[in-house]
Specification:
The structure holds 2 protein chains of 2 kinds. Chain A is an all-beta fold. Chain A is 0% helix and 55% strand. In chain A, strands 2, 4, 5, 6, 9, 10 and 11 form a 7-stranded mixed sheet that branches. Chain A has a 4-stranded antiparallel sheet with strand order 1-3-8-7, with no helix packed on it. The termini of chain A are far apart. In chain B, strands 1, 3, 4, 7, 8 and 9 form a 6-stranded mixed sheet that branches. The chains are: A mainly beta, B mainly beta. Chains A and B meet through β5 and β10 of A and β3, β7 and β8 of B.
Amino acid sequence: EVQLLESGGGLVQPGGSLRLSCAASGFTFSSYALSWVRQAPGKGLEWVSAISGSGGSTYYADSVKGRFTISRDNSKNTLYLQMNSLRAEDTAVYYCAKTTYYYGSGSYVNFDYWGQGTLVTVSS
Amino acid sequence: QSVLTQPPSVSAAPGQKVTISCSGSSSNIGNNYVSWYQQLPGTAPKLLIYENNKRPSGIPDRFSGSKSGTSATLGITGLQTGDEADYYCGTWDSSLSALFGGGTKLTVL
């Protein structure tokens, strides 16, 4: 059974930093891409970042580029999101999602399993 | 405002059929596959449809997907009260970003 368990959320002041973690089990971790998707209170889903199975390719939404860094440790089956220069608009539940994707002719991206999320609140 | 446009809400009676649209452009839906997600109240999203019209194991055939040009549609037949949820479409964009629609709230009257 695929399981994804996020941790590291909490209250942080504007301009501060936070690191989220996502512990995975139930699948061959290094064979799959992973993503972070967030959802502001009462709002829709927003894709944040993705990383390939090897960690060699990373992708970011424009809204977080240069502030957030996605990484993974395949020896620990863990995904990370380092968030710096946090803003009020980064307040959201952050979900970790197992991802299958192909970029080329007929691209696709599927978030086939999701964790339960961790809440990040940016406020003074 | 999302690049992919969905109606904010739809409603139908139990047992009826409903469709949810997702409109994009040639840089996203027009040249890529679409997926759909169901988010029940207070829970994480769940993959319903992938690659336009495929269902993951365990998803009933009451749920279907289709795509034409730069738009996609999710169909749900035999509506049940348990289908009340938010539904989101998703796809890749040529800017190497994943996109979600703004979401549609389904009410089963």
